[in-house]
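Fig. S4 source data, part A: sequence.
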Amino acid sequence: IAQKIISRKLGRASATPGEIVVLSPDVVMTGSNTAVMVVRTLNEIGASAPWDPARIVMVLDHSSPAESVLTANAHRLLRDFCATHGITLYGEAEGICHDLMLARGHVAPGMFVVGQDSHTPMYGGIGAFGFGVDTPEMGFVWAIGRTWVRVPASVRIQLDGAMAPGVYAKDVILSVIGRLGAGGCNYRAAEFAGTALAGLTVAERLAICNMCVEMGAKAAFFPSDEITGAFCRRTGVEEAAWVTPDPGATYEREISVDLSMLEPVAARPHRVDDVVVVRQLTDIRIHQGFIGSC
């Protein structure tokens, strides 16, 4: 799927893993206070305005609401900048960046999306190529509308069976990470397949793709299907370039996971791949739980 999306963007029949290519993103997501540094980068390199404001989305979610005068002033600068240049802005109370990008129809299957957040591979839950970049690189993306990427090799993760009650998508991806290791998919595309996909909602697919970066993945994908299509119709995405792997596609590595055999798991400090079943942690007292912003 990664090779297909890149080759389509290049206007070529194919793209080879390891090849370095330069592409223009379909949409760019920038957020948090580090967006101020993106604006500064734009000014430092002499760009008078972003290359295409219609393809930039700004989300103020990471330090929200502002916890200091410094953050409040940064938010004000970003609001003013977006208003001046006609950039779509979502304020502090509107939601988490990746959820907003999907729910508001900014991302569609087959798109090439660059985000200023490491969990941008989440967009692969609907079949888009999403990956994160750091602040200086995002500044240049804003200025020239292009970025480079090395075409990733793909790892196929076959999901079969059905999750038992009390087992969730988070348990699936943590189990995969525990098996492959924190660097087990480094600069690879994690591609999910199997009979279990028909029973996974878009929300579950997004949760799985979101965490693939924790095993080093450049991008992650679920193939487009009717579940994807139904989600896109709800979010107002009318033209979606569905992407599925070719029959007989080859992969660098393949693993299989039987979801019916999974139990609730947790990653112990301080490694995301130190994954154990929760029933082994009955002597661990929980001091604090957190549900909040990205």
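Fig. S4 source data, part B ends here. The first strand starts at residue 20 and ends at 23.
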